[in-house]
Design a protein that fits this description.
Layout (H helix, E strand, L loop, with lengths): L1 E9 L5 E10 L4 E5 L6 H8 L7 E6 L2 E2 L4 H6 L1 E4 L11 H11 L6 H10 L15 H13 L5 E5 L7 H16 L3 E5 L3 H7 L2 E6 L2 E7 H8 L2 E7 L15 E4 L4 E6 L8 H10 L4 E8 L2 H11 L1
Parallel strand pairs: 3-8, 3-9, 6-7, 7-8
Antiparallel strand pairs: 1-2, 1-4, 4-5, 9-10, 11-13, 11-14, 12-13
Helix pairs in contact: 3-5
């Protein structure tokens, strides 16, 4: 649905925000773009949406070049920006209907009503934007982005600073849109959202894409599992007999942490437990943890 080739962006100050980005986003998927502040996420979205001009490279949306065929490309895209930009004196109904008209779409009150109801805005339809809370204004931005029935929806930090109820409402709308074939690109600082929602994950750091992977495959390849043993007696140092096992002391010597790959032919858990028994080290409890997408993301960016 979106094809990005050798895309770079250098600002007038000389700062190079994007460096040779190559990315293909599939039709009907939810793609999570993760990266620290200043990594280039918003610049990349701005270029695809026609807000910024690229310095080099090409972008097409459903085969339409974003520069040569701007109108066709832009009509396919809905954008929910980070900032709250709305006309303070307009009503909710008027501002959403106006956004639809900007794309030369015929009036469709039933469709506008459907969007407002899905986002729990129907009872606010006659309220002026200036009277709404920050969370309600965020809902209006989502409604505006959906007003012209786009085939691609960009969500740039859409749940920053909003309540749990809105998040639930919005993710249900996103799931419904994906089910109808809409392609969704999401940036978020709430990585658990990406872990829950995304089909694929891309990580951007310092203007470069450092990884693109199916979420499940990424978790499989880079996720680690840890077995945490709570010891009966504190250990000051790890005995030499245990050096061959992937063990580390934690919690001031009251815990042993064993890291292993669940997909390996042999995890080493049995051998490790036998070695503990031979060394007369006893534990009173154990638990396991799995690396989250956040752990993987932090590790990738730190290595970079």
């Amino acid at each position: 649905m979106i094809s990005i080739n050798n895309l770079s962006k250098t600002y007038a100050t000389g700062f190079r925000a994007l460096k040779n980005i190559n990315l293909e986003i599939k039709r009907g998927e939810i793609f999570a773009l993760l990266g620290p502040n200043g990594a280039g996420k918003t610049t990349l979205i701005g270029i695809v949406c026609g807000i910024l001009k690229p310095s080099e490279g090409t972008v097409t949306v459903d085969g339409h070049d974003i520069i040569a065929d701007y109108r066709a490309a832009r009509s396919l895209i809905g954008l929910v920006p980070q900032e709250l930009h709305t006309d303070a004196f307009e009503s909710v109904w008027a501002t959403v209907s106006f956004s639809r008209g900007l794309f030369n779409k015929p009036k469709n009150p039933a469709y506008v009503e459907k969007i407002l109801r899905a986002l729990s805005l129907w009872d606010k339809k006659d309220n002026r934007i200036m009277t709404l809370s920050g969370g309600m204004k965020r809902r209006v931005l989502i409604a505006k982005a959906l007003s012209h029935e786009p085939q691609v929806l960009f969500l740039d930090e859409p749940t920053a600073g909003v309540d749990v109820e809105l998040r639930k409402d919005m993710w249900q709308v996103v799931r419904d849109l994906r089910a109808s074939g809409v392609t969704i690109i999401l940036t978020t600082h709430y990585i658990e959202e990406a872990e829950d929602m995304a089909d694929r994950v891309g990580v951007i750091s310092k203007g470069e894409i450092i990884l693109v992977e199916d979420k499940a495959e990424l978790m499989h390849k880079l996720g680690k599992k840890q077995l945490i043993l709570q010891l009966q007696k504190k250990l000051d140092v790890l005995p030499p007999a245990l050096a061959a096992h992937n063990l580390t002391l934690a919690k001031d010597g009251t815990e042993l942490v064993f890291t292993y790959d669940t997909q390996a032919e042999r995890t080493g858990v049995t051998a490790m437990l036998s070695a503990l028994s031979a060394a007369d080290i006893r534990f009173r409890d154990l638990s396991t943890t799995q690396s989250s997408l956040e752990d993987i993301f932090v590790g990738l960016v730190s290595e970079r």
